[in-house]
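Might you be able to review the protein record set out just below?
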Amino acid sequence: MGNPLLILLVGDILIAYAAYALGYLIFTGSVNELVRFLQSVEYGVLLFMSTVIFSSFVAGMYRFGIKQRKRQVLIGCVFAALVALPLMSTVLYFELSSTLSSSRPSGIGGKHLVLSLAIFTLLQFVWHVRFIYFFGLSWFKQRVLILGDGERALMVSDALKQHPRNPQLIGFIDMGNGAKTVPKDMLLGSPEELVAIVNSNKIDTIITAVTERRGALPVREVLTCKLNGVRVLDSNSLIEEIKGQLMVEDITPSWLIFSDGARMTPIVRLVRRWMDVFFSTVGLIIAAPFMPIIGIAIKFDSKGEVFFKQKRVGEGEKIFTLYKFRTMRQDAEAESGAVWSEEGDPRVTKLGKFLRKSRLDEIPQLINVLEGSMSFVGPRPERPEFVEFLKDKIPYYSYRHVVKPGITGWAQVRYPYGASVDDALAKLRFDLFYIKNYSPFLDVMIIVETIQVVLFGKGGR
């Protein structure tokens, strides 16, 4: 079949035209007017279509891998509409008003615009959900061949079972050395036979699962397949696409350098800062009536200060002071020093348990966001003592400091609270995925999932 992203894009373009025409029909109430409209090419409809498609790109609606379920598609469609609305308000409204004849109902420009956008958002949601469904049917399944026969190849085959588009695994390539961990009946041949195997089995995607220890990559054969239109992925890219994390143990500096993403341009940073100021200001206004109540409750619950201040590592590994409502005894680390919080930590007060579960203890961090030491979304800031320890234990740990730390983040909504080196490694996989794949849509999705975490009391400790 053709490029699925192109099919998805063409569908959105047709939907945009249909939504504009349907909105036109509703407000004119005249089929004749609609026929006349369809027979002409108005500047307004071209602007409308361009704006909604551009907004969909900004919202990440044409990226696969991290949003495949209905709820996540809905978030993307709504976010795209929110991006499109101000653009249309400043550009399209005047264009539409200038093209409308005096015989049409007054006010049709603005109302027509909003209704057409609402219709497009609804139709886009239905189209994307149905597209994902049909793309997962057997006729649309990607036929996958794994280049490898060892532990990594087996890991890739297990990951494919979780892929939202349900690809069809055809078999493995026998690398000819070492013990085999994959089913022997699925070994289709040697690397020298790769091109013939790909052609005879109509393979769409090759996933390389080869290490230097188990055998060298058959570069000539793989390149021939790629030039013939076959998609080639390495195992790290597949895990990234399916699980939304980077396998820190396997990636190399060159893989990070030459892979897509991982660029925080000045424009991106400016947009992030604007969003941080907006969300933190709104958050502080909403939280202002509750903060004195929480402070009084903390005073009654235990002796000590209301606010908890602690040094944390921020962007560029600069030290800053983090603010929280106090949830532990005042002398919690007087004897032990810096230690991770554990499940059922006796140092946490009764009220502190509630504040942590509800995430209300993190409200003062909005001040950190407003002053610029933190962002609303990003990797959680860690203590300097732990950072120095983890940098020696975990590769690429310092990379999480290329962006500002956040109140919430991709790791927080994907992984429970961590209190060990293994937990820190698992969360780093998600943090690096976030940094590499940053988009405004991803931030919105994280914020929405954070609200769900707060409502259901997950993750806090």
Summary: The beta strands are 143-147, 168-173, 187-189, 205-208, 231-234, 307-313, 319-325, 375-377, 406-408.
